[in-house]
UniProtKB/TrEMBL annotation:
The keyword S-adenosyl-L-methionine does not apply. It comes from Sparassis crispa. Belongs to the MAPRE family. PANTHER family: MICROTUBULE-ASSOCIATED PROTEIN RP/EB FAMILY MEMBER (PTHR10623). One of its GO terms (cellular component) is microtubule plus-end. Residues 124-200 form the EB1 C-terminal domain. One of its GO terms (biological process) is cell division. InterPro entries: CH_dom_sf, EB1_C, EB1_C_sf, MAPRE. This is Microtubule integrity protein. It is found in: Cytoplasm, Cytoskeleton. It comes from the Eukaryota. Residues 80-131 are annotated as: Disordered. It holds the Pfam family EB1.
Length: 212
């Protein structure tokens, strides 16, 4: 879509999205672009964020047909548009491995003493393997803790998303009947409230309305 219209807010697109809430944020941006250019195509967000191949394949096939029909052949630099942000998931960091070269450097042919100062309580480099092992253990513990926090975050986000959908549907039903529910309005207000430091999109931009 950005190669066709050139006005997608690429700085807000999460290139390495891995979680459902990040997928939803990206689809909000896409739907706002559709709305701005009057593209009459519903985006099945609830299905697409589940990452099932059939649903995503059908949507991508539609996107390809749309691009073939509307792309004017003008030059387009995707790397510059996303300001060099990587489009592929970042490679995982390899675990630290103890180096034998440094520990072996303290040994000299003929039994001569190594040059330089020797730390109190032992020979130079004798504690390095233990330090590396401790760091690896801490890294594994932190990775496990982070994974647990991410799962917990996604769990509660999913619950809030379900509440948002139910409240919205109920309010739409009441509005169709000419009624209202102050309690549901308060719940919706809490769901849509922002914290200090959160940047609200300025009126008139493509992201003016971020609703499905």
């Amino acid at each position: 879509m950005d190669s066709v219209y050139g006005d997608v807010p690429m700085s807000r697109v999460k290139m390495n999205a891995k979680h459902e809430y990040e997928f939803i944020a990206n689809f909000k941006i896409l739907q706002n672009v559709f709305r701005a250019h009057k593209v009459d195509k519903p985006i099945p967000v609830e299905k697409l964020v589940k990452c099932k191949m059939q649903d995503n394949l059908e949507f991508m096939q539609w996107c390809k047909r749309y691009w073939d029909t509307n792309y004017g052949g003008q030059g387009y630099d995707p790397v510059a548009r996303r300001k060099g942000a990587p489009a592929d998931p970042p490679a995982t960091i390899a675990p630290l491995a103890p180096s034998s070269s440094r520990s072996g450097s303290s040994l000299n042919v003929g039994g001569a003493r190594p040059r330089g100062r020797t730390p109190v309580g032992g020979r130079a480099g004798s504690t390095q393997p233990n330090e590396v092992q401790n760091l690896q253990t801490q890294l594994r513990e932190m990775s496990g803790h982070l994974e647990g926090l991410e799962k917990e975050r996604d769990f509660y986000f999913s619950k809030l998303r379900d509440i948002e959908i139910i409240v919205g549907q109920q309010l739409e039903t009441l509005e169709a009947e000419g009624k209202d529910d102050p309690l549901l309005r308060d719940v919706q207000k809490i769901l849509y409230s922002t914290e200090e430091g959160f940047e609200v999109p300025e009126p008139g931009t493509v992201d003016e309305e971020e609703t499905f």
